[in-house]
Amino acid sequence: MQFINVEIKARCNHPEKIRAYLQSHQAEYIGLDFQTDTYYKVAKGRLKLREGNIENNLIYYERNNDTGPKDSHFQLIKIEDAKNLKEVLAKTNGIKTVINKKREIYYIDNVKFHIDEVTNLGSFVEIEAGNMLADFSKEQLKGQCEQYLQLFEIQESDLINISYSDMLLNLS
Questions:
Q1: Which pTM does this prediction carry?
Q2: Domain spans in the chain, listed from the N-terminal domain onward
């Protein structure tokens, strides 16, 4: 099944303020996930295998590289045997790049928050308002993201329009 997220990614100069806000507003803390995202070469969209101590998924998504709230159409498959799948995908598609990060995961209703520390890239916050857990229109999801942008005092200059994989590849 395909779902939609409206997402925001931004540089995060004050993770402690965002963490304090989430904690004071009874966000559900899922935990600290040490993740390795292996991105594969594909003709369209992005395909990554996420290996973590909390989340282990194969994720295909299509998203425009727009600044601010952007639609992301995705398919997610929970993975039991990441090692063998990783080997098959590497042989059949080739690896584009690998991202390592430390991610704090929180939820308030249908909105998922990530406070990320990404190796070689720095600190970021992601806000993902999705319809996987609740029946919201794209406009409602965008409104939720914009609300948290204001609450977290995220400046337009901090918004990121590309994926971590693209950011890392741009460093090369």
A1: 0.89
A2: 3-171
Backbone φ and ψ of 25, nearest 5°:
-110, 25
Helix (H) or strand (E) holding 43: none
Q: How far apart are CA 161 and CA 156, in angstroms?
A: 11
Exposure of 161 in the CB half-sphere (CA atoms within 13 A): 7
| Token representation of residue 71 | 């639609």
Q: Which residue has the tokens 């990614």?
A: 9
pLDDT digits (tens, 9 = 90+) for 93-145: 999 999 999 999 999 999 999 999 999 999 999 999 988 777 888 899 999 99
* Contact present, 112 and 9 (Cβ < 8 Å): no
Which top CATH class is 3-171?
mainly beta
d(CA 99, CA 101): 7
Strand-pair partners of 129: 6, 111
